[in-house]
């Protein structure tokens, strides 16, 4: 079914006033696109038998997989029921989102199963299931993310409250594994069109921006060097 920004039937919720800012959806989607688009290249950069490098890359892929799982779990738990109740004319769009989530879960589950095998014994053979899962995920994201941004985000901005939108941000942050917060923040910033400057101002209090620049950004640069198999700066 082709995506359309309007509901499938009935009165359009887009006729109502804006109640919240859901632009954060597209911002986090950029991180998922960039992270999974580069993932196969990161796997290909690991030499056969280089378990140390594979450990770093596998941890990165597990990080973004965990984040995407949580992102979709939050939508399944809170977003679809809210739209079903408050914008029932969007039922066809919501059902399509659910189907897309289910299809992507198959690929994410395959990635989660393949990563430990490759991480512990990196080779062309163990890497292929990882690559296959990543192909499935990037293909699913290419279908799902623009569809959600076109058909769901405008409805969110008319049927959700700011507090409800903030719940999704908190849920995403809570899913970040211990010790990976700077890496996740770095990935989000790097994915924004301007490198993250506007996102920082919009989303981070001044003290957090200070610690990011003094502590987080240098740590993230070292992490990226390890991921890419470069000499750490």
From TrEMBL:
<feature type="domain" description="Hemerythrin-like">
    <location>
        <begin position="25"/>
        <end position="154"/>
    </location>
</feature>
<protein>
    <submittedName>
        <fullName>Hemerythrin-like domain-containing protein</fullName>
    </submittedName>
</protein>
<dbReference type="InterPro" id="IPR012312">
    <property type="entry name" value="Hemerythrin-like"/>
</dbReference>
<feature type="region of interest" description="Disordered">
    <location>
        <begin position="1"/>
        <end position="22"/>
    </location>
</feature>
<feature type="compositionally biased region" description="Polar residues">
    <location>
        <begin position="1"/>
        <end position="11"/>
    </location>
</feature>
<dbReference type="Pfam" id="PF01814">
    <property type="entry name" value="Hemerythrin"/>
</dbReference>
<dbReference type="InterPro" id="IPR053206">
    <property type="entry name" value="Dimeric_xanthone_biosynth"/>
</dbReference>
């Amino acid at each position: 079914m082709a995506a359309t920004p309007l509901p499938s039937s009935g009165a359009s919720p887009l006729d109502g006033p804006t109640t919240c800012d859901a632009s954060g959806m597209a911002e986090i989607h950029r991180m998922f696109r960039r992270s999974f688009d580069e993932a196969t290249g990161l796997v290909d950069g690991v030499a056969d038998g280089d378990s140390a490098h594979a450990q770093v890359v596998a941890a990165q892929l597990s990080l973004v997989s965990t984040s995407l799982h949580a992102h979709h779990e939050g939508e399944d738990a809170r977003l679809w029921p809210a739209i079903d109740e408050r914008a029932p004319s969007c039922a066809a769009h919501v059902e399509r989102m659910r189907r897309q989530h289910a299809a992507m879960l198959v690929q994410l589950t395959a990635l989660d199963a393949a990563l430990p095998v490759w991480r512990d014994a990196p080779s062309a053979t163990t890497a292929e299931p990882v690559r296959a899962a990543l192909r499935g995920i990037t293909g699913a994201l290419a279908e799902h993310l623009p569809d959600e941004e076109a058909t769901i985000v405008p409805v969110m901005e008319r049927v959700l409250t700011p507090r409800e939108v903030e719940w999704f941000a908190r849920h995403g942050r809570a899913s970040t594994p211990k010790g990976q917060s700077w890496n996740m923040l770095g990935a989000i910033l790097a994915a924004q069109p301007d490198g993250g400057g506007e996102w920082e101002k919009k989303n981070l209090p001044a003290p957090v921006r200070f610690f990011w620049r003094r502590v987080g950004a240098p740590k993230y640069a070292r992490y990226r060097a390890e991921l890419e198999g470069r000499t750490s700066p």
